[in-house]
Known about the structure:
Blueprint: H1 3-15, H2 19-22, E1 25-28, E2 33-35, H3 36-40, H4 50-68, E3 72-74, H5 77-84, H6 88-100, E4 108-115, E5 118-125, E6 130-134, H7 144-160
Parallel strand pairs: 3-4
Antiparallel strand pairs: 1-2, 4-5, 5-6
Helix pairs in contact: 5-6
Amino acid sequence: MGSSDRNKTVEFILSASSKADLEKVVANNGRFELRVSDFKTLMGCEWLNDVVINAYMDLICQYYLTKSRKNIDHIDSLIFERILRPGVGSSIAVELIMKHQNIFEKEFIVIPVHRCHHWCLATIDVTKKSVNYYDGLRGTQGGYFDTILSLLDTCYEHHYQGFQK
């Protein structure tokens, strides 16, 4: 996209106010779509939505893959949120992760975590066998370690225990 096209897109995003304009897709790379309403969350005192966070995580992963050749990936924030809730939805979310990736084939996994009023980050460093949690407001991790460790156990059983029979 040339700078003239980019400037027109930015102007459109800034001036958009109708429902139809807000739903217009302005960025699509095949892995995610960003609508005008998503970009609007980057302005002023708006709350960042999951679409923006997941798109940013995807960009970070793609950057590191091309620059450092590290096999890095992320878990979608909405899927992780489903894992946190007990019940059937949690099981389905774990199955979605296992279907699309083997966490243990990655070197590093990034997990955006939405806390009531802000975003935090959890990471799984597979090569160092460590899980970390980062909260700019210095909040407690609220059971996320247990959830991540349970996810890792389930994924390990799914991908490796079946071969030992």
